Amino acid sequence: MPQIEPSNAFSALGLEPAIVLALDDLHFVEPSEIQRLMIPAALTGADIIGQARTGTGKTAAFGLPILQRLDLAHSLQALIVTPTRELAIQVEAEMVRFARHKLARMIVVYGGQKIQHQTKLLERQPHVVVGTPGRILDLNQRGSLPLANMKFVVFDEVDRMFDIGFRDDVRKILALCKAPRQTIFVSATINDDIERMVHQHMTNPQRIFTAKADETLTNPEAVQYVVGVQPWDKLRALRCLIHHEQPGLAIIFCRTKRSVDKVAHGLCERGVNASAIHGDLLQNQRERVMRGFRTGKINVLVATDLASRGIDVHEISHVINYDVPEDPEAYVHRVGRTARMGATGKAFTFVSLGQAQLQTEIEKMINHLLEEYRIPGFTPSMEPSKRPGALPHPAQDGRPSASGEPTGGVSASLPATPAVDGYAPTSFTAPEPTLTRRPISGRFPTRRRR
Ligand code: AMP
Predict the structure, then answer these.
(1) Pocket of ligand 1, candidates 11, 28, 84: which has the most ligand atoms within 8 Å of its Cβ, to mutate?
(2) Would residue 26 count as lying in a domain?
(3) Does 256 reside within a domain?
(4) What pLDDT digit, counting tens, does each position of 371-430 carry?
(5) Ligand 1: which residue has its CA nearest to atom 22?
(6) Could you tell me if residue 152 is inside a domain?
(7) Residue 104: inside a domain, yes or no?
(8) Dihedral angle sign, alpha carbons of residues 96, 189, 318, 230
(9) Are 223 and 345 in contact (CB under 8 A)?
């Protein structure tokens, strides 16, 4: 056991020297809020439901106490379930870093990788298994991953797990973990569904909430804008925005895999260093894209919600919602990709006429009015079907505008097209929420405040 002075802020939370030393190696100096609250509670063995924004250090908040409480004489003691492969991979990597001065063994299991390979990994008798719900159940049914003796069970990003449709799998996993256990749920938002699950599967849970009533749910460091733009202008507006902002690392969210591909292609055509990531990519392709993004070889990632979960890259400077999320909780997760751990960031959300209600739902959810933003140099164009000589069918989202496109890469100058029909981005306004609309610093009471 390495000798250190257990004197830093993490040892004050009750963490043992081997863990404190690993945190020291990682240059973790101050615990984040969720860590300060959750670590001492979890060290007592209590069941916990923790609400924390993404990127606030929640992995360490649940991972460190588990690591400390593991009995290294027994394998298969802790199960950490995540909604996506990317998050599973990151959580396991983070746990390995935390355990560098302990002899705890970790593995990660997820769909899309050969099950035989994972069966082999399980033969090494790991102490901690991190994985996605489907693959965990699959391995359990094959007899390779008995769950009956798990002493620690964590469900990370539970809200997302439910959104994706893993509710039954969560139930099945909990039913299979029969031994007396410590159960921890971590989620950015806590809704009635999650509360019901907590009621059924936890004993005297401690509730740890970090998004207080007077805070917004998204990172306050992220400046959040809304951009009024019509569907046929979106790709041009996006290029213009990227040209103007010159983001270090950006994620652009689209609703479908098809639009992800189209947008990535449309950006690459103009010399933007963009790559698509979505569920149709093979696991090794996804990993290659993520490696490129992490190392800065790719600086614009175009993604679906699902593929973006768990992307933990510190320096993401911009999140652009090319398609406004239909579920306001998805907005919280998307914007949570930027301004992580105290860094700053910007989030832009494209909203077309007819989508105002979605904007209102988001504003109510995050307790904050989005600031309207006009992209410098961008002027909206006429609806394609109304242009002189237009074919009867309107052009689809992302097609080149009638007035032409920039031609020479990110730094190309962007010709403006004339505004038509009196429509201008800033003329867009969302309908009044049912609550009184107040200035940007005003607060809406929301359903989820505690
Ligand atoms: P998470 O919310 O667990 O995804 O953590 C976000 C990122 O912050 C991860 O890359 C962590 O390694 C890092 N991190 C977590 N806690 C701390 C801390 N106390 N000090 C510095 N970095 C941290």
Answers:
(1) 28
(2) yes
(3) yes
(4) 899 999 898 888 887 777 766 544 333 333 333 333 222 222 233 333 333 223 322 333
(5) 28
(6) yes
(7) yes
(8) positive
(9) yes
- Which one, of 256, 323, 268, lies nearest residue 300 by Cα? 268
Same domain, 266 and 120: no
Closest approach atom of ligand 1 to CA 29: 20
Listed in sequence order, the DSSP H helices in 297-345 are: 305-308, 328-335
- Does the C-beta of 337 come closer than 6 Å to ligand 1? no
| Residues 93, 143 within the same domain | yes
Q: Cα(331)–Cα(183) distance, rounded to whole angstroms?
A: 27
Is pTM, for the whole model, over 0.85?
no
Judge if 276 and 408 occupy the same domain.
yes
Indicate the angle between helix axes 85-98 and 58-69, nearest 10 degrees.
50
Closest approach atom of ligand 1 to CA 97: 12
Residues 180, 306, single domain; the answer is no
Residue labelled with tokens 């398609």: 323
Hey, how many other C-beta atoms are within 10 angstroms of the C-beta on 343? 15
Closest C-alpha to ligand 1, atom 20: 28
Among 58, 160, 341, name the best residue to mutate to test ligand 1's pocket (greatest count of ligand atoms within 8 A of Cβ): 341
CATH classification of the domain holding 374: 3.40.50.300
Verify whether ligand 1 is closer than 6 Å to residue 230 (CB atom).
no
Q: Of 39, 44, 48, which is closest to residue 19 (Cα–Cα)? A: 39
Residue pair 111/85 in contact by the 8 Å Cβ criterion: yes
Pick from 312, 313, 316, 333 the residue to mutate for probing ligand 1's pocket: most ligand atoms within 8 Å of its CB.
Answer: 312
342 lines ligand 1 (CB under 6 A): no
Q: Give 270-287 as a DSSP string.
A: TT--EEEE-TTS-HHHHH
Co-location of 114 and 173 in the same domain: yes
Contact of 347 with 319, CB cutoff 8 Å: yes
Which residues constitute the domain of residue 309?
Answer: 222-378+393-413
pLDDT, tens digit, 9 for 90 and up, residues 230-256: 999 999 999 999 999 999 889 999 998
Ligand 1 near 312 CB (within 6 A): yes
> Ligand 1 centre and the CA of 89: distance in Å?
15
pLDDT tens digits, residue range 33-52? 899 999 999 999 999 999 88
**CB distance 60 to ligand 1 below 6 Å:** yes
SS3 at position 169: helix
- Tell me the torsion sign for CA atoms 67, 70, 75, 80: negative
